[in-house]
């Protein structure tokens, strides 16, 4: 009976210790072979509730945030800009702050009343 109990405990211990490296290997596998960062994939507002065309068509007033900048991708310099329209200045500033995280160098970032008067 003692031998059987020892065998069960040894089996459980081996199963437990073997699962930790497997979980770690899954993490490393995802890290090494998962989708990679693509600098050309900067989020857009087109077709969303923050699209300025839809904002203007609905007759709304608010704030228009514009961010532009450069992304350095080894041999290439990618220039991108994004705009979005928001009901409050705080939402606009949040958009600006979030979008600046995608650029290596920001050339312009600002919130202006929309539509311009």
Highlighted features:
117 residues; 3 helices; elongated; single chain; 28% strand
Describe this structure in words.
The protein has 117 residues and is of the alpha+beta class. It folds into two domains: 1-35; 52-114, no CATH class. The chain is built from three helices and three strands. The model has no long low-confidence stretch (mean pLDDT 80).
Question: Gist?
Answer:
Residues 1-20 form the signal peptide. The protein is α+β, with helices and mostly antiparallel strands and 117 residues long. The protein has helices at 2-33, 52-57, 89-100, and strands at 62-73, 76-86, 105-114.
How are the SSEs placed, and which strands pair?
Layout: H1 2-33, H2 52-57, E1 62-73, E2 76-86, H3 89-100, E3 105-114
Antiparallel strand pairs: 1-2, 1-3
Signal peptide: 1-20
Keywords: Signal
């Amino acid at each position: 009976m003692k031998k059987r109990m020892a065998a069960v405990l040894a089996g459980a211990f081996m199963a437990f210790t073997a699962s930790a490296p497997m979980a770690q290997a899954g993490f490393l596998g995802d890290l090494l072979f998962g989708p990679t960062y693509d600098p050309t994939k900067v989020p857009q507002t087109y077709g969303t509730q923050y699209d300025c065309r839809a904002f203007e068509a609905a007759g709304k007033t608010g704030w228009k945030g514009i961010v532009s900048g450069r992304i350095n991708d080894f041999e290439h310099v990618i220039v991108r800009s994004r705009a979005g329209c928001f009901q409050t200045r705080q939402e606009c500033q949040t958009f600006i702050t979030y979008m600046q995280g995608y650029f290596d160098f920001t050339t312009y970032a600002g919130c202006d009343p929309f539509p311009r008067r």
